[in-house]
Amino acid sequence: xxxxxxxxxxxxxxxxxxxxxxxxxxxxxxxxxxxxxxxxxxxxxxxxxxxxxxxxxxxxxxxxxxxxxxxxxxxxxxxxxxxxxxxxxxxxxxxxxxxxxxxxxxxxxxxxxxxxxxxxxxxxxxxxxxxxxxxxxxxxxxxxxxxxxxxxxxxxxxxxxxxxxxxxxxxxxxxxxxxxxxxxxxxxxxxxxxxxxxxxxxxxxxxxxxxxxxxxxxxxxxxxxxxxxxxxxxxxxxxxxxxxxxxxxxxxxxxxxxxxxxxxxxxxxxxxxxxxxxxxxxxxxxxxxxxxxxxxxxxxxxxxxxxxxxxxxxxxxxxxxxxxxxxxxxxxxxxx
Length: 336
Prior knowledge:
Radius of gyration: 21 Å
Strand content: 25-35%
Order of helices and strands: HHHHHEEEEEEEEEEEEEEE
Oligomer: single chain
Helix content: 10-25%
Number of strands: 15
Distance between the termini: 22 Å
Shape: globular
Largest sheet: 5 strands, antiparallel
């Protein structure tokens, strides 16, 4: 999956010809050598995102698309390493690490060694301990009406698993919460909180932790195609005995283009800067946060493409930030 490089790299190849600074320009075409890339990039974007066409937005949306694609692949591959006799996926190699010239490509690090968000999303999925989820629609047709599909019940099946790449069994606490993105006010965003559950992660394997209906997490059953499901975000974390977060993952309904994101002013999104440390917090779930300095020389970030939920602030470091102002892009930031 391709993704544009850092906007600074794009501006490097555009140079002084600002008339070429748009996604479909001749210069942009010359800096992508994949066959049929316009059709493929835009197809994936249209299928998944409500997106904008200014070059800054196009860079952002293709980067988030690449990050989501590769992290999903690695997450599911790691799940398939299920222990002795069930090593269905033994490993994967990412193509590719970095570019040999300034270009839009499959690389996760661009020509100037600026990591794309996909670099960080893969990095998260390769930690010693991870947690993953899948959400699948399950339609059950009414057996009393065998000659029509007009009568059905639509549910969602939720599965949660953890992975452990160490050679020792690991005891952790599974913390699961459900949030309603479009709740009428912030006090009603938290819909469901599963009682903390102590689980054991098998060594050098994935471990299945939960399988059940999303109904118990707050999603009503549907009997009509016209009934729109609640926009529920399920957050899962693995906690160590001292409360340290070992792994986290937020499962969102897809495609993202169908999600009605709250206005930025309703998020309660806060960016607290302290030297080279940046702490993010929010009152409503947020998807695909990509950070950058507001002005001046770029910083080196420890994480990007961040999903954020209420009650779980995240701190990243930015080498060279030195207390400067930070800006953020995210899905639903008003750009599209």
